[in-house]
Amino acid sequence: MRRLRPAAIIALLLAIAAPGTAAADAAPGWTALGEPGTVAIMRHAIAPGFGDPAEFEVGDCSTQRNLDDRGRAQAAAVGAAIREAGVAVDRVVSSQWCRCLDTARLLGLGPVEELPALNSFFGDRSTREAQTDAVRAFLADLAPGTTAMLVTHQVNITALTGRSVASGEVFVLRVAEDGAVRVLDEILIRP
């Protein structure tokens, strides 16, 4: 068996690890987002930590886990990839948590609306069904042809789709008339 030189090994590892451009890698997902009956749902960008502190208050960002520099860069990169793909987003809707609102604003896709149904139920699972049903109803009630971007939390996305999602990951969803959702694509742009 022939041995590779150290320089060849490094070049090979870099080629495997080096991602292409964010927009090019995600083009099929962004294309699907432009089709009728599809929406995007995104877990907030990178916000180090787990859950929220005990003194958490929705209206006070100083009591919450917030985006770090990588999270802010990730949110901006996702928005840039959507714009680069030529997708016009009609509505940007977010959880009221600061890390979600900041992610939604940094996307730069338009004014941000708050939707309490997108708030995290991580600390109180008793609201899981009611919130998920409210999100399904919101999606079913979107005007035909509306392209929406929702920004929320891992628990909310998992409850809606049955799938786990990374920080900053976007799922492109097909929404049926009854509010049922199907994941068409998963897009993750790392900072």
Topology readout:
Layout: H1 6-17, H2 22-33, E1 38-43, H3 69-84, E2 91-94, H4 98-107, E3 112-114, H5 128-140, E4 148-152, H6 154-161, E5 170-175, E6 181-187
Parallel strand pairs: 1-4, 2-3, 2-4
Antiparallel strand pairs: 1-5, 5-6
Helix pairs in contact: 2-3, 3-4
In short:
The chain is built from six helices and six strands, in the order ααβαβαβαβαββ.
Task: Give an overview in words.
A hairpin with a 5-residue loop joins strand 5 and strand 6 (181-187). This protein has one domain: Phosphoglycerate mutase-like (Rossmann fold, 3-Layer(aba) Sandwich), CATH 3.40.50.1240. The protein has 6 helices and 6 strands, in the order ααβαβαβαβαββ. The protein has helices at residues 6-17, 22-33, 69-84, 98-107, 128-140, 154-161, and strands spanning 38-43, 91-94, 112-114, 148-152, 170-175, 181-187. The protein has 191 residues and is an alpha/beta fold. Helix 3 packs parallel to helix 4 (98-107).
What are the segments in which pLDDT stays under 50 over at least 5 consecutive residues? 1-24
Q: What Rg is obtained from the alpha carbons, in whole angstroms?
A: 18 Å
Number of domains: 1
Shape: globular
Give the strand tally. 6
The overall pLDDT average reads 85
Helix-strand sequence: HHEHEHEHEHEE
CATH topology: Rossmann fold
List keywords for this structure.
Rossmann fold, 6-stranded mixed β-sheet, 191 residues, alpha/beta
